[in-house]
Amino acid sequence: MNKRYLKQMLTYFSRVYHLGEKVKGLKDGRINPQIETSTISFIVLFTFICRLKSFNRLEHWLEKGRFKNLFPKGTRLPHIDAVRRSLSSFDINGLNGMHDHIIKTIFKNKVFRNGTIDGIKVAAINGVEIFESTKKSCEKCLTRVDKQGITHYFHRAVVCATVGSDPHTVLGYKMLEPKKDCSDKDEGEITGGKRLIR
Question: pTM score, two decimals?
Fold first, then answer.
């Protein structure tokens, strides 16, 4: 993806969805960061837009200066370690607020006025696993034990997204919850899907 196209996309998203203002309001838990959270947020946003599949690829793009022309002259760009630190303490509520604003704008602008399949607006809910490890875990991890008796820690979400014509839009998501005190099972996709619908 060339730099000119990236710049055009940035202009479009800023003009239509006011992403510039919204991204500037995002926060993370770093104290006195040398790189602005908004700079890292823009880079991560474009990582998703460009469908980069790994942090290794993002690191390569950062080293090659692929994002340099997207920012005003003199803006300090991060190394991959700064991106990791920012994301590990990111304020998810701010991100969710930005997502809600985008969805409201999509409906206000009647993006789906012709429907997504044969004139009907269609959405689907599906589960997706987004992290798995046998070594790292947190209090929100779900768990499973394999045939060798090794415990796997993972995160799974249920996601509601439009189906059919572009743009394929994520309307909402819920992270599945780990087992509670009185339960011996983690939350399943059906229960999480019902929460998402509500």
Answer: 0.74
